[in-house]
């Protein structure tokens, strides 16, 4: 499974390691992902999502139902 947030679509970015001598080598900046289980009362079921920690903060703030509705509107969740 790829390292992509299932709610926000965040994924790895590409950048450079820069040494003290300014030598540049390619590297990736991975998204900060966690695997978390949520209970959705409207559907009366548990779902496991691989989400970014910023998405978890959004869920804590506005709730899982509103976050899923927002993600569906943006095309990230079916």
TrEMBL record:
Lineage top rank: taxon: Bacteria
Pfam families the UniProt entry points to: Ribosomal_L28
Keywords: Ribonucleoprotein, Ribosomal protein
Record has Ribosomal protein as a keyword: yes
One Gene Ontology term of the molecular function aspect: structural constituent of ribosome
GO biological process terms on file: translation
Entry keyword Ribosomal protein: yes
Cellular component annotations (GO), alphabetically ordered: ribonucleoprotein complex; ribosome
SUPFAM superfamilies according to UniProt: L28p-like
Family from the record: Belongs to the bacterial ribosomal protein bL28 family.
HAMAP family: Ribosomal_bL28
Name of the protein: Large ribosomal subunit protein bL28
The organism's taxonomic lineage, starting at the top: Bacteria, Pseudomonadati, Bacteroidota, Flavobacteriia, Flavobacteriales
């Amino acid at each position: 499974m790829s390292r992509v947030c299932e709610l926000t679509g965040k994924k790895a970015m590409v950048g450079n390691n820069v040494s003290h001598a300014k030598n540049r080598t390619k590297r990736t900046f991975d998204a900060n992902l966690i695997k978390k289980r949520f209970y959705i009362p409207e559907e009366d079921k548990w779902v496991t999502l691989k989400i970014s920690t910023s998405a978890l903060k959004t869920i804590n703030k506005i709730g899982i139902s509103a976050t899923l509705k927002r993600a569906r509107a943006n095309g990230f969740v079916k």
